[in-house]
Amino acid sequence: MPRLHANLPTLLRAMLAGTSALAFVASAQAQETGEEASGGDSTALETLVVNGGSGGVITAEGYVGISSATGVKTDTPFLETPQSISSVTEQQLKDRNPQTLLETLSYTPGTRVGAYGFDPRFDAFFVRGFDVTYTGVFRDNLRQPGAGSSLYKNEPYGLEGVSILRGPSSALYGATGAGGLYNLITKRPTEETLREVQVQLGSHDRYQGQFDFSGPANETDPVYYRLTGLLRDSNTEQLGVPDNRAYIAPAFTWQPDEDTKLTVLGEYTRTKTGGTAAYYNDFYNEGFGSVTDFFLGDPAFNDSIQNQGRIGYEFEHSFSDALTFRQNLRFSALHIDADYVYGWGPYTDTSGVLHPDLVARHAGTFDERLTALVFDNQLESRFETGVFDHTLLAGIDVAKVNYKALGGEAAIDPFDMNNPNFGGSIATPSFTSSNKQDQWQLGTYLQDQIRYGAWTLTLGGRYDWVWTDSSMTDLTTNTTTNTSQDDRAFSGRVGLTYETDFGLAPYASFSTAFSPNVGINRQTNQPFKPTESTQEEIGVKYLLSDYNVLLTAALFNIDQKNGIFWDVVNTVNTQVQRGKLRSRGFELEATTSLENGLSLTAAYSYTNLKILEGSAGTVGNYVSSTPFHLASIWADYTMPEDSVAEGLGFGFGARYIGSSYGDDTNTLKNDSRVLFDASVHYDFAAIDKKYEGLRLQVNATNLFDRRDITCTSNYCYRDQGRTVIGSLRYNW
């Protein structure tokens, strides 16, 4: 990484120095407060707000998100954010009890989950038609990198919410894609004591226990803790594909006064599932679009074990009401070791005879490691110039990503579809390839929120430098290809919002995105080019604060070039790059939590995603597995306290997935479908107050067990079937 200029101002040098900034701010605070800093006032602890800050934490009332720091990196009401933004709040998570990130996001506008059917290995999803799996997942406002099969597992029980910013957002966040970003907000220490234990039983022999403890460390010190954990042993609907997990997440907050706060967030997760989970596509006998009932892999050779960990902190200090410094840092690492089998077509024997009922198979193995260090330094200043109020944000962030992958494959005995021969002895293939990649990213950004009466003008710009060194080694010939790549780009956003006295806020914005890609393009044997995108968006938001109702609508146009997608046919399940895409559409969303016990979230989106430049036979077509229409509604109702059924509650949801094409040549068609979810819950305090905090809840996903076929990039999958999970939770 190039040297930075040595003669920067003192604070800026401290910002770039990482943790040394803590010492700088502590020194400045001591000079400012003098002897009063050592005295302290224990009564002040009662008024401190522990659960806030720069990680994107959502301020919400039930299902209705009001504000967060995700939209503009400062805690800003959604109405003032000149871009489409929504949230999955803590109350939504409790009511729906999602078991995966995809279930967590399934009721949010424009979010396409299930494009690869049942697959517990990855949280792969799309928004506004664009894959955001690698570029759109953030954790606590910091980028969560991914490459190849190295994608971090995300445990919903460890989240207190998700804040979603749709559309290109590189003006502040750097490496993001065209669809936007999903900021996963980790559970943080609470000021009030929280104690929760829970047991779950469910479909496919699912057994799970979990706990969540938080509160002040003692009665005198300004230290708060949180410890969240989970242990699960479970099978799934697919033979040989478990869903086992161990998860532990410690956190603590130190807040010596109302101006200074340090929160440390840690996590360790171990997950065991299958190396593959798909069904065999019988292209030869039945043609494209045919999915058999035969498992593509083999239970005897189908383990995927991933260990991952995160440790980081969020530091914030206010020098005055007008000047605040923040520094967020996280180091993360993962290791995934997987074995798999796949069938790729009819078997031809050594004599050249074709056997249509036999499936040629390969066994494969890979060992991948990904480490990432990301940190973001911010200086926020609030001031006035005449009649204008400014919130000026300046920042520098750095990301260092290291990716290593070993892989190998070998032919094994064919599979007999008339007499399945699972369970034979399968030897682990030797590694035949080794890929390594190091990437540095440095970004500087500046944003000004200018307010004049009911108007808010948001101007932001950022410049990124990215340095990537890659090596690809063929271990069979011991030959290595080394490449180096330097990328740099400017990203910007300009948005205008007008907020009326009665809560109506129309807006318009233009934004861009720049995303360097970690990985090798197998078609060119070169590093992937950066993905670039631009968006024009207009919309309106309406907050009926007296009724706790938020209504939003957005109309957008997005152009993207050099996007990455998985090609599972032409290049045997490999990431490739294509030319230009254009997405046009609109979205509607409504959320509310009413005093009568009813909470509701509803969404509709229309997406028209076309290929403007691409391979032969695809130009002018629609991108595969992108439904034109998506709609969803979830409602939860709890009976009133004075009713006969006091303590009883119900939830019901419907998710409509419109028709789409199964390949980019638009020769396959995915049918539309509606999936239903439901829940029932009961609070035992309605029987007797001594049972306060005891709650029984049952959630069903895909209630009527629809298992339709979904084709994506010319390969087809089965939708995940019905799951039912009962949970008994006790809070005290």
Automatic annotation (TrEMBL):
<dbReference type="InterPro" id="IPR010105">
    <property type="entry name" value="TonB_sidphr_rcpt"/>
</dbReference>
<keyword id="KW-1134">Transmembrane beta strand</keyword>
<feature type="signal peptide">
    <location>
        <begin position="1"/>
        <end position="30"/>
    </location>
</feature>
<dbReference type="InterPro" id="IPR037066">
    <property type="entry name" value="Plug_dom_sf"/>
</dbReference>
<keyword id="KW-0998">Cell outer membrane</keyword>
<keyword id="KW-0408">Iron</keyword>
<feature type="domain" description="TonB-dependent receptor-like beta-barrel">
    <location>
        <begin position="253"/>
        <end position="703"/>
    </location>
</feature>
<feature type="domain" description="TonB-dependent receptor plug">
    <location>
        <begin position="80"/>
        <end position="180"/>
    </location>
</feature>
<dbReference type="InterPro" id="IPR012910">
    <property type="entry name" value="Plug_dom"/>
</dbReference>
<dbReference type="Pfam" id="PF07715">
    <property type="entry name" value="Plug"/>
</dbReference>
<protein>
    <submittedName>
        <fullName>Iron complex outermembrane receptor protein</fullName>
    </submittedName>
</protein>
<comment type="similarity">
    <text>Belongs to the TonB-dependent receptor family.</text>
</comment>
<keyword id="KW-0798">TonB box</keyword>
<dbReference type="InterPro" id="IPR000531">
    <property type="entry name" value="Beta-barrel_TonB"/>
</dbReference>
<keyword id="KW-0472">Membrane</keyword>
<dbReference type="Pfam" id="PF00593">
    <property type="entry name" value="TonB_dep_Rec_b-barrel"/>
</dbReference>
<keyword id="KW-0406">Ion transport</keyword>
<keyword id="KW-0812">Transmembrane</keyword>
<dbReference type="InterPro" id="IPR036942">
    <property type="entry name" value="Beta-barrel_TonB_sf"/>
</dbReference>
<keyword id="KW-0675">Receptor</keyword>
<keyword id="KW-0813">Transport</keyword>
<dbReference type="InterPro" id="IPR039426">
    <property type="entry name" value="TonB-dep_rcpt-like"/>
</dbReference>
<keyword id="KW-0410">Iron transport</keyword>
<keyword id="KW-0732">Signal</keyword>
